[in-house]
Amino acid sequence: MLGEIIHYLMKNQEAFEQVQNGLASIVGASEEETQIILDVINGTSKILTGYWF
C-alpha cells in the first residue's frame, strides 16, 4: 500500500504539492508517516537495511 501511495503522488504532481503544502492529507497516515513519504519522493530519506530513520 505504501508503494502505491508513493507511486500515485509521483504521477500526480498536483496531489503531491497539496500534501506537501498541508492542503491535503493521506488518509490513514500519521503526520510522521506522511513526512516519511514526502522525504522518499523528494529523495531526502535515510534508509538503512529497509528501515526509515
Neighbour order of strands in the largest sheet: 1-2
Q: In percent, how helical is the residue content?
A: 55-70%
Number of strands: 2
Averaging pLDDT over every residue, what do you get? 85
Instruction: Please state the structural category.
Output: mainly alpha
Question: Which regions are unreliable across 5 or more consecutive residues at pLDDT < 50?
Answer: none
Kindly estimate the percentage of residues that lie in beta strands according to DSSP: 5-15%
Q: Using the alpha-carbon principal axes, give the shape.
A: globular
Number of helices: 3
Q: What's the domain count?
A: 1
The largest sheet is: 2 strands, antiparallel
What does this structure look like?
- The protein is mainly alpha-helical.
- The chain has one domain.
- The protein is 57% helix and 8% strand.
- A two-stranded antiparallel sheet has the order 1-2.
- Helix 1 crosses helix 2 and helix 1 crosses helix 3.
- The longest helix has 12 residues.
- The model has no long low-confidence stretch (mean pLDDT 85).
- GO terms for molecular function: pheromone activity.
- Keywords: Competence, Lipoprotein, Pheromone, Prenylation, Secreted.
- Its main location: secreted.
List the SSEs and their pairings.
Layout: H1 2-11, H2 13-20, H3 31-42, E1 47-48, E2 51-52
Antiparallel strand pairs: 1-2
Helix pairs in contact: 1-2, 1-3
Briefly characterize the structure.
With 53 residues, this protein is mainly alpha-helical. It contains three helices and two strands.
